[in-house]
Amino acid sequence: MTTHAFQAFTTPSLPIRGRAETFPVRRIYCVGRNYADHAVEMGHDPDKEPPFFFQKNPDNLVTTGTFPYPPATNDVHHEIELVVALAKGGTDIPAASALNAVFGYAIGLDMTRRDLQGEAKKLGRPWATGKAFEHSAPISDIVPVATIGHPAAGAISLSINGETRQSGDLAQMIWKTAEVIAHLSGLFELAPGDLIMTGTPAGVGPVARGDRLVGAIEGLGTLAVTVV
């Protein structure tokens, strides 16, 4: 029996819709600029860019419906995203069979300290301070593939205090879910419990304390989060 120097931490997990068990989270990968209109609004040409990735930490997950406004920033942005949850892993997974690795799908918010991310970009540094801070990954319950199938099209949106801020369609993703899994598995060894946040449509912008954010993806329902 292994004896730890201090109490071991609990594995972060997400609820699974319609089931008593939970989904243990191993890693959180994120795809950058995967919608053309968002790439343009961030000052990039989507036609010239292969997919690239960054990570959040499993303990960045939020399932309580609240997002504490983080320290060291005055410019926190919302990014609504489709989240892919994996039940299988591997390396160099072919795109043709990549969807066989998917357990289900969820709605996520990639909360971003945009000012810190901007400083990191200018200096050519990693994005961790802008992306992987505490509570930066509010995610809904996971809807299993048996219930939802593999959504390739459908409305994705985010509203703040009842006003729509982001609106798009999953069909607008530059790199589709299977392609994302295939490309990512060529860079990392994927495993059951991994989450992939697949990018956001245009319209990202700041949030303030007291804001009520409601993200929606057709077929998955909604994710409601209050900034506190």
UniProtKB/TrEMBL annotation:
Keywords: Hydrolase, Metal-binding. Residues 28-228 form the Fumarylacetoacetase-like C-terminal domain. It comes from the Bacteria. GO terms for molecular function: acetylpyruvate hydrolase activity; metal ion binding. InterPro entries: Fumarylacetoacetase-like_C, Fumarylacetoacetase_C_sf. This is Fumarylacetoacetate hydrolase family protein. It comes from Jiella flava. The lineage of its organism: Bacteria, Pseudomonadati, Pseudomonadota, Alphaproteobacteria, Hyphomicrobiales.
